[in-house]
Amino acid sequence: MLKDRRPLPSIAALGLMTLLLAGVFAGALADARPTAGADDSGSATALKQQLAVAGLSLPETRSFLDRLEHAVAQDDREAVAAMSDYPITVAAGKEILTLDSPSRFAARYPDFMTHPLRQLIAEARLENLFANYQGAMLGNGALWFGPVCKQEAEPQNLDACPNPPVLLIRINGLQ
Length: 175
Description:
- The protein is of the alpha+beta class.
- It has one domain (47-171).
- It contains 6 helices and 6 strands.
- 19% of the residues are buried.
């Protein structure tokens, strides 16, 4: 048996190729526009499956994003604070804050709810979400949300926690 003696690509080259391919696919996904019957399409099925891994359904995700968009558009910091889990970690510029109450969240809201983050929320689209076992994210991790079980017994077992609320769980922000 002859060995193939072609040189292997460097790790840097592989990383660059991965980034280029990711950019191409991300661009293609960002250009996709849902149609009136999009809920029955293959992409909607894939999105439903991805959200299910995060413990989310399509209707509750859509509802959460609608409520968040409305609250942010109205600059209703108390409503956004009520949609958050505590303690919550937020990025305010170069400062990382751990906010332990809705009142602290509301007080620091202007520090982390920047114009770019507001715009990201206003333009949020279901098909641009990424979800995994940790929750769902907008904008490459700028904002994370998911179901939060408040029961003491098994906080990671969503089956033991029927209908957990969907809450913001981390705000990494945008510069």
